[in-house]
Amino acid sequence: MQEQEVEILQLIEKNANMEPSKIAKLMNITEDEVRQLLRGLEEKKAILGYSTLIDWAKVIQQEEVTAMVDVKVQPARGVGFDKVAERIYRFPEVKAVYLMSGAYDLSVSVEGKTMMEIGRFISEKLSALDSVLSTTTHFILKRYKHDGIILEDDDDNDKRMVVSP
User: Fold this and answer.
1) Where's the Transcription regulator AsnC/Lrp ligand binding domain (predicted)?
2) How large is the angle between the packed helices 3-14 and 20-27, nearest 10 degrees?
3) Cα–Cα distance between 41 and 8 in angstroms, integer?
């Protein structure tokens, strides 16, 4: 991969909404070159999509529940964990699947409208898979930082009492 391609990926990873004109200025190339690089990266599947990070806690009516599910599985002979992971990530409730080291095999991010909805998904769909041996569910109560972005309001109002000798 070219140095310019890596540079452009680093820029848009932080801000997918960055205008090609700004990228061109930062990289000291033309806008046409930026568009050509972006098109090439999309064709190579290095860029899989562009997304917006939304703090849904600020939009009370739209707030969803997220759970991280630790999954212990029986890997399939010859294909390891890949086929099991593929079966799991095809469920629409599943937002991410990661192969992990440690006490469990897969970490699965699941979203739903309520805790009960997620519970039903885990008991009726995820745990029902033949290769799934066990699950442990952790519900996310509050997000502080996501994808490198701090979600808390940056107040300078430190509410701690000052303690002096």
Assistant:
1) 69-143
2) 130
3) 10
Which residue carries 């932080």 as its tokens? Answer: 14
Under a CB-based contact definition with an 8 Å cutoff, are residues 33 and 24 in contact? yes
Give pLDDT tens digits for 4-50. Answer: 999 999 888 888 889 999 999 999 999 999 999 999 999 999 998 88
The structure tokens listed for 104 are: 């469990």
Name the nearest CA neighbour of 111 among 144, 68, 77, 143. 68
- Read off the tokens for 142: 């509050």
Helix-helix angle 31-43:3-14, to 10 degrees: 90
- Residue 141: partners with Cβ closer than 8 Å, 6 or more residues away: none
pTM metric for this prediction: 0.69
CATH code of the domain made up of 56-143: 3.30.70.920
* Domain spans, the chain: 3-43, 56-143
Query: Measured between alpha carbons, how far is 28 from 22 in angstroms, rounded to an integer?
Result: 10
13 DSSP 8-state letter: H
